[in-house]
Amino acid sequence: MVREGWDAIAEWRDHRMGEAGDLWHRAIIDPGLLGQIGAVRGLRILDLGCGNGYLTRRWARAGARSVVGVDRSARSLAIARRRELARPSGARFLQRDAADLRGLPDHSIDLVACNMALMDIPDLKGTVREVARVLADGGRFVFSICHPCFDLDERSAWEIERQLYTETVWRKVRGYTEERMSRVPWKISDTKLAYTRTYHRTLETYVRALGDAGLAIRAMREPRPGPEAVRRSPQGRFMLEVPLHLVVEAAPWPSGPAHRPRIPSGRGSRKSVRTSATVGRRRGWGGRRRGTGSARRAASPGS
Question: Which domains are delineated in the chain?
């Protein structure tokens, strides 16, 4: 189960994330998400898939009216509450399935934020419907995900081609239209691997889920790595050319779902979700070097 997977890596992730996020979050992903969200003073915020709650507490300290962190992982929430007790911010934490936010009233939230979690949630439609239900008039849904066009399990990889004194970086992708669940390996020690599940979906699927719930896309960002990421991550400079993350802001249509623009149906039927086990790898031959370089694989603290 997904919950068991995230429970298995909760302590390891907390050690990496701390109160500021690991390298990829603080130097690549979070600046785009936080820049899109902007000031939070006076807002009622739901942090969906909050993990250890470092952003939940950050927003509480930034003057939000109320902040609730929700996660399905019991161990992650225990860590979040432990950190909150050590240094109170006013944030609250609830164990909930993202597609069943029972206890949160309709139209009670000004901002739903979901940082690098939506692609790991199996019920996308149910989750987006619940987000739309709890959003107040004028509310916003801002989320970050692995870029579905460029980072999809083991079917995407960096390829570096060197000739004499020049180097060309390519991002190779296959199977984009095939939506499926994959097992993601996390190297939590020199001898231990843990697995979680992630779900590759096309951009069309995300847009359709938002539209069906009465939400319209207002903005999109493709975060670029900051100086620290370029300096410390082997992939940092590659992401200056090809982004591996996407930040989206959506908001309810003023007149509700009945008045939203209709999204035409795609040709043919959508394929069923398939399963794959993914393992990060590097292969080399001739003058070429390849690697998955996924935003979901973390082999070392500096990756």
Answer: 2-147+198-277 (3.40.50.150)
